[in-house]
Structures are given as structure tokens and as C-alpha cells.
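Possible regression after last week's pipeline update?

I re-ran a chain I had predicted before the update to compare outputs. Posting the input and the new output here so someone can diff against the archived version. Not blocking, just want to make sure nothing changed silently.
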Amino acid sequence: MSWRSPALVAALLAGLGAFALAGCGFQPLYGGATAGGAKLAAVMAAVDITPIPGRVGQKLRNELIFATTGGGNPVPSRYRLDIIIKESLTDQLVQITGDATGQIYQLDASFKLVDVASGTVLLAAKSTSRAPYNRFQEIFANVRARYDAENRAARTVADSIRTQLAAFLANAA
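New output (post-update):
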């Protein structure tokens, strides 16, 4: 095998790249252990998400529970996540008759991560999502379009909250 073979050059470059990153302190968010040595997945599973009123609140809570536990069995709670949501609608593309042909559903969530043992607030943050949808003549189509927009916004907010929690817990746990 010649020193100029593509496989040898690729292996050499991969080895040099791994060596260059070995001492830089870079660590993937969901890989390995947290600053305290525990696996991030185990720390995230110890977050108890309190109930949120309304259909969208329940959707948001379910998304977060699945994202933090992976659908597994609950573990003893070390943290409590309190979430308050605010929903709003904005008309867009308003016709001369006053009818809107589209709307934007906005979901704002304020959340606090509380240490269960001491009751202290460890993290307080916000997340927002906007989901546009079209309005139609048929009532059922409008209802379904709004539900879809609410579900999209809840998923986006849940992903944002999960990422903020993971970033905080990876450094604090």
C-alpha cells in the first residue's frame, strides 16, 4: 500500500483531527457525563414536569416528559420544572372585508427549574414559538389548521426548553 493511497491519507487526517481536539475541552451536549460525573440522560430523567393547564399545556408537558425520560419509567425527582404558558393569535393577510386569510399562533412559555430538596430556583428562562397557518371557508379545516399550529408550537417550545435544561444541567449537575 502506497503512502499516497486515499484510505491511508483519510485515516491519517482523522487521527490528526482527533489528536487536535483531544485537549480543547469540547464535549458533546448529550454525550458522556455532566460536570458532576453523572450521565446527562439520568439527570434529565430526574426532572419532574408539573402539569400545565389546557390542551396545549398538556401537549407541551407530554413532549417534555418524552424528551427527558425517553418514555422510560420515572425516577425519583431531584428537580421540578414549573411552566407558565401564554397563547396569542395575530391576524395576517386581512382582506378589505375584514376577514383574515391567515393567522399566526404564538406560544410563550416562562419556566423555572427548582431544586426539590432546597426549594431554590436554579434556572429561570423563557421560550417562544410562532406557527403560521391559513384560514379557509370550512370550519373543520380552520379548527384542524389551528390544532396543527398549536402542536407545532408546543413541539418547538419543548425542544427549546429541553435544550436549555440540558445545557444548564450538563454544567451544574
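Follow-up from reviewer: compared with the archived run. The beta strands are 47-49, 79-94, 100-115, 121-134. Marking as no regression found.
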